[in-house]
Amino acid sequence: MIEKLPWLERAFAFGLPVEMFPNVLERLRGTPARVEDRLGEVAPGRLTSRPGEAWSILENVGHLLLVEELHVGRVDDFLAGAPVLRPAAYAAGRVEAAGFNEHGLADLLQAFRAARSRHVEKLERLGAAEVGRRSMHPRLNREVNVLDMMVFAAEHDDHHLARITELLARS
Considering the domain 54-170 in this protein, what is its CATH number? Predict the structure, then answer.
């Protein structure tokens, strides 16, 4: 199996034309269904297994849920004309402290679907001028627009789906 590049080492090629907005929006809209499809028949014990210090499957899903607040907040930053997007300020141990391994899969999936739906609904209300608004991404240290951040979010989703697949292959 080919090892995936760690998230914080990723570089991104942004710059899609605004006409790609509907395609990327569908990718974001579809993530909850892809997660549900991937985990539909997985035994509960496999969902909470933690290889070493790494997150379990449920913790990966919980992380996706937590990150929705950041994604929606960054859309708000663009709309407010913020020169710099809010940073991802996740303290070490935040996912573990949230106790996602004590949640049922169905509850986490429902919460993620609801949060992602709110995110997508906010994006659906944007026009071309708003999608093209630019702001500085604090970690990437480069200017991005709303569509770039949508691609970033979709890539983040895929990163965690790939991690879930790795965890399923181990057990």
Answer: 1.20.120.450
